[in-house]
Amino acid sequence: xTGIQDAIFFICTFLSVYVQVFFLLTFLQNRKKIxxxxxxxxxxxxxxxTIAVPSFNEEETVENTLLSLLNLNxxxxxxxxxxxxxxxxxxxxxxxxxxxxxxxxxxxxxxxxGKATALNLGLEHADTEFFACLDSDSIADSESLVxxxxxxxxxxxxxxxxxxxxxCNVKSIIxxxxxVEYNMSVYIKKMLSFLGAIHVTPGPLAVFxxxxxxxxxxxxxxxxxxxxxIAYRMQKHHYKIEHCNDAYVYTNIPPTVFKLYKQRVRxxxxxxxxxxxxxxxxxxxxxxxxxxxxxxxxxxSIITATYIFCIMLYNILYFFYSNIIQYKDxxxxxxxxxxxxxxxxxSSFVFISIFLYCLVVFSVILGQKIVNGKFxxxxxxxxxxxxxxxVAPFWLMKAIYNTILHxxxxxx
Amino acid sequence: xNNEIDWKKYxxxxxxxxxxxxxxxxxSNYFGNxxxxxxxxxxxxxxxxxxxxETQFSLLxxxxxxxxxxxxxxxxxxxxxxxxxxxQNNLGSTEEVSYLKKYYSLLQIKDYLLAKKISERCGxxxxxxxxxxxxxxxxxxxxxxxxxxxxxxxxxxxxxxxxFDYSIDVSAVKALISIYKIKDTELPAVVLxxxxxxxxxxxxxxxxxxxxxxKLQETKPDLKPKSAR
Lengths: 412, 229
Prior knowledge:
Chain A: Keywords: Glycosyltransferase, Membrane, Transferase, Transmembrane, Transmembrane helix. Chain A: Residues 50-216 form the Glycosyltransferase 2-like domain. Chain A is an alpha/beta fold. Chain A has 12 helices and 8 strands. In chain A, strands 3-2-1-4-7-6-8-5 form an 8-stranded mixed beta sheet, with helices on both faces. In chain A, helix 1 (3-30) runs parallel beside helix 11 (348-372), helix 6 (173-194) crosses helix 12 and helix 10 (288-330) packs across helix 12. Chain A is globular, with a radius of gyration of 23 Å. Chain B is α+β, with helices and mostly antiparallel strands. Chain B folds into 2 domains: 8-108; 125-221 and 225-229, Glutaredoxin, CATH 3.40.30.10. Chain B has helices at 7-58, 76-90, 95-122, 140-155, 171-179, 203-219; strands at 127-133, 159-165, 189-192, 195-198. In chain B, strands 2-1-3-4 form a 4-stranded mixed beta sheet, sandwiched between helices. The chains are: A alpha/beta, B alpha+beta. Chains A and B meet through helix 1, helix 10 and helix 11 of A and helix 1, helix 2 and helix 4 of B.
């Protein structure tokens, strides 16, 4: 490696290790505050909640989503369910209409306009103190809502609470990889909530005080990532977002690499573009850790993953190129000599990479522990980040490319 | 909302991260030193081997050429060369590696002189290649030449290849360079049977020359002592 490459690699790895150590220290400082409840949770009062379920061509999953809402451990007269069909071309609306007779369910149909427009339709008709959104590919655990609501009861300054998202129907290797990633995501979200720095209020059952929308306005298109934009807007106005680690929402995840790629291009594109839109609030101490830590660490991870991937790709291509040239020039290839431990690389970069890998694996384990109090080291934990290291740079680079060309990725 | 930034925590994390990097650097140095120790060990073994061979050779008048077994050659010499080259590329050109490389060059010359003497005295079929390369600038021809010679050595184990860094500061190597009048602009340079070949030479060309060298040796009168004493 040249000196410049070494320097960039050093900076990237230093900042990546810094981010992981920061999370770990946050965990050690707050570990006693992490609550995992068993059994039924009770509240002193049950405020009314509107749960909007926006759907676009989800005929296969929407029924289970609705059934899970009907099964919530929360007084039925305190829940209003809005089923919003966003111009589906399949049988989604027919499935929704089967539930029309329930007194607390309302079905809406509108022209296709994107998730933000569907949610805004729900907001227009909502008259409750709280508003939640549940994606129609997700299933809410019966205790999820009451546990989420307990955070509002405990702290009046909380303006939104996000749940722990757990993957379900895991079959393929790429889904196993995502399961590990989601576990780590629970850990990261929890740590960010301790720092007051959550940057996304995701579709699977984030609950808001209606005041948020009254004060800050409805959802925005926001590069097809309205759940991130509303969180950025809340952070800008110092509205507190909490994470409830024992409120479980099960979500279906893309079964193939290509579908995952499309989903992630949209997410990363949303992150980059919302970050650009809100650039004025970064590195400003009045916006707290969100401004100084969350967004910069997201940018660092995109740059590091892309850079390391490019270097590795260059080395692999160079290896093949030099072998082809060698074969062309010499008529034979250099034989691979027998294994000798002497030739194992022991540079400091190798050890730093091992430290970073261990910190990431530890994060996944802590994520498992935060979700259900137990953890298990499995093979998928060990290989997942290697697989992600290979595939993730493709969607990172595509999202960067789309941003440069102002090309918005499709929703589906 | 808690928007206060705990700067002390940012500083502590920074110090912990520095600590992790220093630990990585320490571990790297530790294993690097272990490797250098391993190189020294191999070098000592070769040194003893050569000394032993020289002593054995001095006693040749007392011995039969039969007793000059294959073990007289140090098989570790090639291994040491590879490891030194790897160390120079990966451990950085530390003073210790440079020193070991100088020592290695001397050991090669000693081995060359001894092997040549034994070959002449006992008629052992062998050919010798002195190969001069440079690491000063990116010499792709040198890399190719090195691979050709390695391949030839694998094909003919009797072919002994000694490689020398042209710019190494060892008077014995400088003497070899002046004996064969090698110029730094003509690298890579190969000396095969006292014939100087400059620039890159492909495997077929060198293969022919090596075979010719072996053939010449077969036609030479038998120099072996008639009988053991």
